[in-house]
Amino acid sequence: MTTITDPTQPAIAQGNLRRIHHIALNVKDMAASCRFYGNILGLRQLTGDAVPSTLVDLVASGKVANFILPDDTVLDLFWEPDLSSPHPDPQQQFTRANHLAFDIAPELFDQAVAALRYYQVPIEGEPVTRPTGRGIYFYDPDGFMIEIRCDPY
After folding, report:
1. What is the pLDDT of residue 90?
2. What pTM was computed for the model?
3. Are residues 28 and 73 in the same domain?
């Protein structure tokens, strides 16, 4: 990567990027993914007037679903019915993105793990405890790795 050392060259100034606007994931089965992100992970699906105006037609046609993350970032699911499985072994990473991580209060962590097990969500090993907190890794319906983590007590 080239380091910008010439201040006369165009660059995005540090601090100009304010936040992540949205995260977009391709999904093979929109209904399964909506159940997963909405019912199992408890994210609120945007409907009606809450749908971004630029996506109203795509949402109405079933090609996109939008969920709001706890920090108000939007998670867009794009329906790709011909999406092929990246690899039969979910441990083989298939994208430059490693995983999407959600933070949870430490006192709710075990309850979240129990919910994942109840819904038979594919879990990667057992919960891990580190000096930085606890975490559990699991997969969405399309094999994308998700983490729920909490700070240490």
Report:
1. 64
2. 0.76
3. yes
